[in-house]
Amino acid sequence: MNDQIKKGALLKRGLGRGLGALLPEVAAVDKGQLRHCRLDLIEPDDKQPRKRFVDDNLAELADSIREHGVLQPLLVRPGERPGHFILIAGERRWRAAARAGLNEVPVIVMALDENRGLQVSLIENLQREDLNPLEEAQGYSRLAQEFALTHAEIARLLGKSRAAVSNVLRLLNLPARALDCLADETLSMGHGRALLALPEGELQNRALDETLAKKLSVRELERLVRKLKNKDEKENASGKNPENVQLQEKVRCQDQAHVSRLQNDYAVATRIRRLGGGRGRLEFEFKSEAELKRLLALLSAGRSAVAAESG
């Protein structure tokens, strides 16, 4: 009787925030689909988006599991070896259960292929509240690049606004040193967004150096950014026609709008670099051959559409 009650409680808890809506077949799981599985037959997915597990947090979860057991089943899919399983959701619980000395954990086995399993794993992790800003941005980027999702589609899956998703993805345009600081949480997402208000290069690096040296808050960094921008604009405007300065600002705003639209249309990091004299560079960033082929196909389709309209 106690086992039945415990099993019912597990099913009632289901898969946590969002996954029930993402996988209706999981939300409607019956008791026959819930089982217990030995820990040594479960292995994490090497493509799992979450790589950082804080030791203190795992210790706290292990203490809770030792006292109450695993209250939310892990989501797994069949592995390549018979009788083995690959984690889709719940690696933190799996690690903590091992630390707590458990031999087995409750699981729900789903008939998902590797591609679908990775998508669910990404979304499950992105719905957590303890991701650092870089993990969140990289997760959004993987959804966009590996599953060809637009910013609006990602927002709908995660219950966020499209603007919020786009703002997080923009963090990936920061220099590598700033990204490292986001990863170790020396900088917050607010710091990252403030730095993006400055052009790439010297000004951005100067603001980053001062922020780290003085441990500036987000508000303090925003004030510094305004100060640096005003100083830079005054230096650029000295001896120049004010109309030219206004034109430069208009071009900069237009470039930002173009970049935002291209990133949304093609789901890849995009940059416009002005070289002077009306010349410049439009750059797309790809991270795999598959992504390059997808981008080329999209660009080719766009060219064909333009040619058809011209004809």
Keywords:
5-stranded mixed beta sheet, two-stranded antiparallel ribbon, Conserved hypothetical protein from pyrococcus furiosus pfu- 392566-001, ParB domain, 15 helices, 311 residues, alpha/beta, 59% helix, single chain, 7 strands, disordered N terminus
Radius of gyration: 24 Å
Helix fraction by DSSP (H/I, runs of at least 4) = 55-70%
User: Cα distance, first to last residue?
Assistant: 75 Å
Order of helices and strands: HHHEEHEEHEHHHHHHHHHEEH
The CATH level-2 architecture of one domain is identified as Alpha-Beta Complex
> What general outline do the C-alpha atoms trace?
flat
Return the structural class.
Answer: alpha/beta
Q: What's the CATH topology label of one domain?
A: Conserved hypothetical protein from pyrococcus furiosus pfu- 392566-001, ParB domain
pLDDT averaged over residues: 79
Which CATH first-tier class of one domain would you pick?
Alpha Beta
Task: Count all strands and give the number.
Answer: 7
Question: What strand line-up does the widest sheet have?
Answer: 1-5-3-4-2
User: How many DSSP H or I helices?
Assistant: 15
How can the largest sheet be summarized? 5 strands, mixed
Which parts are unreliable, with pLDDT below 50 for 5 consecutive residues or more?
1-18, 24-32
| Relative strand content | 5-15%
